[in-house]
């Protein structure tokens, strides 16, 4: 099919057309005094000539396809997957996603195109959904405080191990691991513990074993990986006697029937909420969780939603205790996680809201009853399961027949798990039918097995000592929305409180909030992608293998690297994987002393935190007055640490939004000293198609598929952070003990040959391929854009940023620029001179933008008192101009404050944002009018434009939130209804 200009996807993705480009280039040329006749000439002038890419003669990326073509090819790829009923378990279960949640959350751009709720006044809907999630987790685990989700269960266990080491009063480095833990969790613990000097001791904790030497924590799987249910109270008490912290990985559905971790004194509970309505998706994304007892809340990694109050004294939600997070603490951070799994946490929380406590208990009873009836049938034939106490999982001895039993069940369309040659295991979930249960029993016993199960279990599978007696989900939100009508309206009510890309531009610098096209999103709910277990047999996942191979080779080509791992399920995990690969490479070469990482002062906080978690120490390199790496300081630091230098982490274009001219000199200097170069790929949106990390000295990079490659941010997650590397680092990229294949494609574009790399490093994610169910989004984006379209997107993004800089420079100084006074895909507007002259702060500007109908740019990063703006390629010129006009109007308002027109403590900026209630209820006692307060953008327009502004008004649900009050008065669960009276 020939793709003409009209039907091309790039025309739909890129918001500005040829006429807009001419107008924007004219504005940039007039402001700069240069002459730019085309987007190509602008980018050529911005990007240093020394790093421009040489066009490849052959490409693994096919020419751009239409949306219809891409979906047809994806459907063909999906057809290679075989969806059989999974009863593998091991932390992943089939589940029923209520249609009202699937349609109104997962498939709703009001939820999936939102950004992390750092501007809480316009994020109240998803913050309420997250506090529902936190309340659900604290209630079910019986602990005091839960965070707003983790990346997955196994990484949550690692984070809990690190928390235990911080919180324990002991000085030992020994951590005790339950021998009945999930296999993927054991592998992840081993990889992460080794890097930070923790010694793991594996023991059968259910049998009363504890080490004779000191230890700082224990980890208990509950129920065990083998299905065993037991009461760990004695093990927890013994750990406490040793001064250790007790960590429990608990199944949330099982906790409706079995004693909670809090009931038996656990300090920390972790796990996954996947079986609460989130499809398996071949491993992710899913929302992990972490909850802690009182006294450990300030040790929690990740994000924590709390309750504060707004300027009118009304309750309001916000992210709380942010001073403990990695982006502030940098190398002193205790975790490198800078994201959550918000979209999936919202789904899981709404599953609990929809079903309520009794509904969840009914589902759990169905699961347990089915497993118990299967156990009865097996025991009656003399094949009793290994454990008499269980919730949903049975482990059965089959005396050398494991392969045959698993194969028999597979022929019946059901996947079981082979533990060893003598043992099989299976797990029941909410979708298991009586017919499937009988089929499994017959696969084990043969056709002589009963044709149906009993009607009532012969005995209890959960003893009284393990039964739950405490209440849960008692807040009214979990008992209010039983009908679909009520649930639909609740989800709409929350979505209407929020600002997402479906309302307007989100000009966040460094975060790339671009279009998440409907065609890209369409396939993620197809059962061929959503319905597969991450440990399904290779023959069942051939479609995924093809899709992953395509994406790995495409990403390797556009970045100039040799191989890619898609396992990291967040940018922070990609950073960690890349640094662990560097560490493994040095150690394999015998350079055990190379443990120091150089990081520029402008870098994102995850860089330093990731380096520490990879077992490295951090030395900061200064930046010069132009925002570039200070070469003199870099050389001095290299000379001082030459023998211990492991790596340099550098972001390109720089964190300051400019193309550093000396990037080759930087990478050459590090290589000459024996170090490796980690190029942070966060800003690839400004480089794609014009230059490649691997060509100018990068050895390894992580990418953000939720930025450059269109996976939605989802209100703060999910994300994918692939790690790309040169061939010499390939053996040290993440492997996985349960991966369907360790091989990854290796394409030599010069010879058109195809080979393979083996990734043999330790895992960084619970699932072998991280969050694969959202990879079709990026696949579709690349397939529909083609190489030329990707390059055009970069050009449009750089053009938009320079247009914003050119038009706003006389109102707000642009802090940094590169060659020819140009910026990359983002620019930093300096608000500090305005603050000095008028008292109007960067917070005031950000909150006032809400009244104009915008999400604020990135505040005070990387420079305090500034705004980093990234318009992206997806916004049209009218929307970009609307933002620019708003910023100019805000500058005029601030100048009016400076002139004394309005008092410093009572003006439209200080009072922003303004709610409908604040404008309509009670007396108006402010020196500015109601119209100026709530319709500032309407003041300068007339006619139909004025009507459009007024009718399209976004009304914030709360006024400015008191951050300090929320930190002083920590409250992180659903507030009682009377709080809103």
Condensed summary:
With 981 residues, the protein is of the alpha/beta class. It contains 31 helices and 26 strands.
Which class of secondary structure composition applies to the elements?
alpha/beta
Q: CATH topology of the largest domain, which one?
A: Aspartate Aminotransferase, domain 2
Strand line-up in the sheet with most strands? 2-8-7-6-5-3-4
Biggest sheet layout: 7 strands, mixed
The helix tally amounts to 31
In percent terms, what proportion of residues is strand? 5-15%
Number of strands: 26
Helix content: 25-40%
Uncertain stretches of 5 or more adjacent residues: none
Domains counted in the coordinates: how many?
2
CATH superfamily of the largest domain: Type I PLP-dependent aspartate aminotransferase-like (Major domain)
Query: Gyration radius, to the nearest Å?
Result: 28 Å
CATH architecture of the largest domain: 3-Layer(aba) Sandwich
Shape: globular
Average pLDDT reading: 94
CATH class of the largest domain: Alpha Beta
Terminal residue distance: 62 Å
């Amino acid at each position: 099919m020939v793709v003409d200009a009209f039907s091309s996807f790039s025309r739909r993705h890129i918001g500005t057309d040829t006429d807009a480009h001419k107008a924007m280039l004219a504005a940039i040329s007039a402001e700069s005094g240069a002459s730019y006749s085309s987007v190509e000439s602008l980018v050529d002038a911005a990007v240093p000539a020394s790093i421009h890419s040489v066009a490849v003669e052959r490409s693994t990326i096919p020419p751009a396809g239409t949306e219809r073509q891409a979906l047809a090819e994806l459907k063909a790829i999906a057809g290679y997957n075989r969806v059989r009923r999974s009863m593998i378990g091991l932390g992943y279960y089939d589940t029923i996603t209520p249609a009202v949640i699937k349609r109104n959350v997962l498939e709703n751009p009001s939820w999936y195109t939102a950004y992390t709720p750092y501007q809480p006044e316009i994020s109240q809907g998803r913050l309420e959904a997250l506090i529902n999630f936190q309340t659900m987790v604290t209630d079910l685990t019986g602990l005091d405080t839960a965070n707003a989700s983790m990346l997955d269960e196994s990484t949550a266990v690692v984070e809990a191990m690190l928390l235990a080491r911080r919180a324990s009063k002991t000085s030992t480095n020994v951590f005790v691991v339950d021998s009945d833990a999930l296999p993927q969790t054991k592998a992840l613990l081993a990889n992460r513990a080794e890097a930070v000097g923790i010694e793991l001791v594996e023991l059968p904790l259910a049998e009363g074993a504890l080490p004779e030497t000191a230890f700082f924590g224990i980890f208990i799987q509950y129920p065990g990986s083998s299905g065993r249910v037991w009461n760990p109270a004695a093990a927890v008490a013994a750990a406490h006697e040793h001064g250790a912290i007790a960590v429990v990985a608990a199944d949330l559905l099982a906790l409706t029937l079995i004693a909670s971790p809090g009931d038996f004194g656990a300090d920390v509970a972790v796990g996954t909420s996947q079986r609460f309505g989130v499809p398996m998706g071949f491993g992710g994304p899913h929302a992990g969780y972490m909850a802690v007892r009182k006294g450990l809340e300030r040790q929690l990694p990740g994000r924590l939603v709390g309750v504060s109050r707004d300027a009118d004294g009304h309750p309001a939600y916000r992210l709380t205790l942010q001073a403990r997070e990695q982006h502030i603490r940098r190398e002193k951070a205790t975790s490198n996680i800078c994201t959550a799994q918000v979209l999936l946490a919202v789904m899981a929380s709404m599953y609990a809201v929809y079903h309520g406590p009794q509904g969840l208990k009914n589902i759990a009873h169905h699961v347990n009853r089915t497993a118990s009836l299967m156990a009865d049938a097996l025991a009656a034939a003399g094949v009793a399961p290994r454990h008499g106490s269980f919730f949903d999982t049975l482990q059965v001895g089959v005396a050398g027949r494991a392969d045959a039993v698993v194969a028999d069940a597979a022929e019946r369309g059901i996947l079981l798990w082979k533990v060893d040659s003598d043992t099989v295991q299976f797990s029941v979930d909410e979708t298991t039918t009586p017919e499937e249960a009988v089929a499994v029993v017959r696969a084990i016993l043969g056709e002589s097995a009963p044709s149906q199960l009993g009607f009532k279990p012969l005995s209890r599978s959960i003893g009284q000592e393990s039964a739950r007696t405490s209440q849960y989900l008692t807040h009214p939100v979990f008992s209010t929305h039983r009908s679909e009508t009520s649930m639909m309206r609740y989800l709409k009510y929350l979505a209407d409180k929020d600002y997402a890309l479906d309302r307007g531009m989100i000009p966040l610098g460094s975060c790339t909030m671009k279009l998440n096209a409907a065609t890209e999103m369409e396939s993620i709910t197809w059962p061929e992608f959503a319905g597969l277990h991450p440990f399904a047999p290779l023959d069942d996942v051939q479609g995924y293998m093809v899709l992953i191979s395509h994406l790995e080779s495409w990403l390797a080509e556009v970045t100039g690297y040799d191989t890619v791992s898609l396992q990291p399920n967040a940018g922070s995990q990609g950073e960690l994987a890349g640094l662990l690969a560097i560490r493994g490479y040095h150690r394999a070469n015998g350079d055990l002393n190379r443990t120091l990482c150089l990081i520029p002062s402008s870098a994102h906080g995850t860089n330093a935190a990731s380096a520490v978690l990879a077992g490295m120490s951090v030395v900061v390199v200064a930046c010069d007055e132009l925002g570039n790496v200070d070469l003199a300081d870099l050389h001095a630091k290299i000379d001082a640490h030459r023998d211990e230098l492991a790596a340099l982490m550098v972001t390109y274009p720089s964190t300051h939004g400019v193309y550093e001219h000396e990037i080759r000199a930087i990478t050459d200097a590090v290589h000459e000293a024996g170090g490796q170069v980690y190029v942070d790929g966060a800003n690839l949106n400004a480089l794609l198609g014009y230059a490649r990390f691997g060509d100018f000295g990068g050895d390894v990079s992580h990418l953000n598929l939720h930025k450059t490659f269109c996976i939605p941010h989802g209100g703060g997650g999910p994300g994918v952070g692939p790690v790309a590397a040169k061939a010499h680092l390939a053996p040290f990229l993440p492997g996985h003990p349960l991966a369907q294949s360790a091989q990854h494609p290796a394409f030599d574009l010069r010879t058109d040959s195809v080979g393979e790399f083996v990734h043999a490093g330790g895992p960084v994610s619970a699932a072998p391929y991280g969050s694969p169910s959202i990879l079709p989004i990026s696949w579709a984006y690349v397939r529909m854009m083609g190489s030329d379209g990707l390059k055009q997107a970069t050009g449009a993004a750089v053009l938009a940023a320079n247009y914003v800089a050119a038009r706003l420079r006389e109102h707000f100084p642009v802090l940094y620029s590169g060659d020819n006074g140009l910026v990359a895909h983002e620019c930093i507007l300096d608000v500090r001179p305005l603050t000095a002259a008028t008292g109007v702060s960067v917070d005031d500007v950000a909150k006032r933008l809400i009244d104009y109908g915008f999400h604020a740019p990135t505040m005070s990063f990387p420079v305090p008192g500034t705004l980093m703006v990234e318009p992206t390629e997806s916004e049209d010129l009218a929307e970009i101009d609307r933002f620019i006009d708003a910023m100019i109007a805000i500058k005029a308002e601030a100048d009016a404050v400076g002139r004394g027109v309005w008092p410093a403590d009572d003006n439209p900026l200080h009072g922003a944002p303004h709610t409908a209630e604040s404008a309509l209820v009670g007396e108006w006692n402010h020196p500015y009018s109601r119209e100026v307060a709530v319709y500032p953008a309407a003041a300068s327009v007339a006619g139909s434009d004025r009507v459009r502004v007024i009718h399209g008004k976004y009304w914030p649900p709360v006024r400015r939130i008191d951050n300090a009050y929320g930190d002083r008065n920590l409250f992180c669960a659903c507030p009682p209804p009377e709080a809103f009276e």
